From TrEMBL:
PANTHER family: LEUCINE-SPECIFIC-BINDING PROTEIN, PERIPLASMIC BINDING PROTEIN OF ABC TRANSPORTER FOR NATURAL AMINO ACIDS. Belongs to the leucine-binding protein family. Residues 62-373 form the Leucine-binding protein domain. The lineage of its organism: Bacteria, Bacillati, Actinomycetota, Actinomycetes, Kitasatosporales. This is ABC transporter substrate-binding protein. Keywords: Signal. InterPro entries: BCAA_transport (IPR051010), Leu-bd (IPR028081), Peripla_BP_I (IPR028082).
Length: 431
């Protein structure tokens, strides 16, 4: 991260109703689709005829903080698979990839490259630097379809089409899950702008169930060990011996590093439980760390990774990316990219033999196209009537989460079906 660290929540500075904000923001999308007066003609490389449908997927790779190499790798595998089937409506899918390096300038450069390459959409991507990449995309009218949901801008930009509830839904859902099972709660999270948003969201879920707020403990996002942080968190949650506390590490790729320190430190303290969100913990992390996560509570966006609803995705990985160790079917980034490309395919199919461009994609999505993702999410639609009333989240259409738990080394469902956290998010207020 660059620049001065600020405390931000997902609430905007003004307090107009969420749908009113979307309506005014719609003027931006309308402007972006008009060449005269707005200055940029949207991407049309996937127009009618035999032209390929060109899209981009970006994510950080090879950095000292959170990396998501599986997302662009999944996008390329998806393109190989769909093209082997004749493409979408007979047109080949061309996927460009970009490394945002967890850097503001690099993220903006990826967006500018997307504009220069006339992509019709940015699909299934991850970046913490939304304010850098959305400006070029919005100016060109390019939709951002199926972002990871790590920033507030993904739930406010009129050109964003999120497929999950992002960090807001995960943290609010985890708070609800922990409120019923934990005494004192300590959140260990990155000392970054994105990390500053996490405590408010976790506390919204805790308070909805009558639980006190979590202790907010900041930590370096790229540390190589967390011994002091582990001791500090353990002291806090074991202060009252009559209650079993919970420690919540939400450090992205560094969560397993924290757990290495935590596993050694916890032997000197009473029993505590851990909890986290998918993205910080997944089945591959659990497999690599023995029983460190046994009994941990985990909140995710989608069904557990072993659920049969992931069978089509696993088949594509097996056929088109066998041996590519960047792609982990249990990684929520890979899963999000799969869902996003599922949406793209169905949106393009809805256009028939017509033009495929950034403008036509936005129009079909905005007009209320209903997209079934095979039970991985609820039916998705971004029409005005389908937007939630959650304050500060005007582009949120999917606020479902899944409650999971680690049992015998496996991440399994803690309860049947999804839990909708829209009411919690509607009541989230700035702290």
């Amino acid at each position: 991260m660059t620049g001065r660290r600020r405390t931000r929540t997902f609430l905007p500075a003004h307090h107009r109703p969420a749908k009113a904000r979307v309506l005014s923001a719609g003027a931006l999308a309308a402007c972006a689709s008009i060449a005269v007066g707005c200055g940029v003609v949207p991407g049309t490389t996937g127009g009618s005829g035999d032209d390929p449908i060109t899209v981009m997927t970006w994510a950080p790779e090879g950095t000292k903080a959170t990396n998501k190499p599986g997302m662009p790798a999944m996008a390329l595998a998806y393109a190989r698979w769909i093209n082997s089937k004749g493409g979408i409506n007979g047109r080949k899918l061309k996927v460009l990839t970009c490394n945002d390096h967890n850097d503001t300038v690099a993220a903006a450069n990826c967006a500018r490259r997307a504009v220069d390459e006339n992509v019709v959409a940015v699909v299934g991507s991850y970046s913490q630097h939304a304010r850098s990449f959305f400006s070029p995309l919005e100016a060109a009218g390019i939709p951002y379809l199926g972002g990871y949901g790590v920033t507030d801008d993904e739930f406010t930009s009129p050109l964003s089409y999120p497929v999950n509830g992002g960090q807001p839904a995960l943290l609010a859902g985890l708070g609800q899950q922990l409120a019923r099972n934990c005494g004192p709660v300590t959140l260990v999270r990155p000392d970054t702008i994105a990390g500053d948003e996490l405590p408010v969201l976790l506390d919204s879920g805790l308070s909805a169930e009558g639980h006190s707020a979590a202790v907010d403990q900041r930590a370096a996002e790229d540390a190589t060990e967390y011994s002091n942080h582990a001791d500090q968190a353990l002291r806090r949650v074991t202060a009252d011996p009559t209650e079993e506390g919970c420690v919540v590490p939400a450090l992205g790729d560094r969560t397993d590093t924290f757990m290495d320190s935590f596993r050694r430190a916890r032997e000197a303290y009473p029993t505590v439980r851990t909890a986290s969100v998918l993205g910080s913990v997944d089945q591959s992390v659990i497999d690599a760390t023995g029983n460190a996560y046994e009994g941990s509570y985990v909140t995710g966006w989608y069904p557990a990774s072993r659920d049969k609803r992931w069978k089509p995705m696993r088949a594509v990985i097996r056929e088109e990316a066998f041996g590519d160790n960047r792609i982990d079917a249990s990684d929520p980034g890979v899963q999000t990219t799969w869902v996003a490309y599922t949406v793209l395919k169905k949106a393009v199919e809805s256009l028939g033999d017509g033009e495929v461009s950034s403008r036509t994609l936005r129009r079909t999505l905005d007009d209320g196209l209903k997209i079934n993702t095979g039970g991985l999410t609820p039916t998705l639609s971004w029409s005005f009537d389908d937007l939630t009333a959650a304050s500060g989240f005007p582009r949120l259409v999917n606020s479902d989460v899944s409650f999971q738990v680690v049992r015998k080394g496996q991440l399994v469902s803690a309860r049947k079906g999804f839990v909708n956290v829209s009411k919690v998010l509607e009541n989230t207020e700035a702290s």
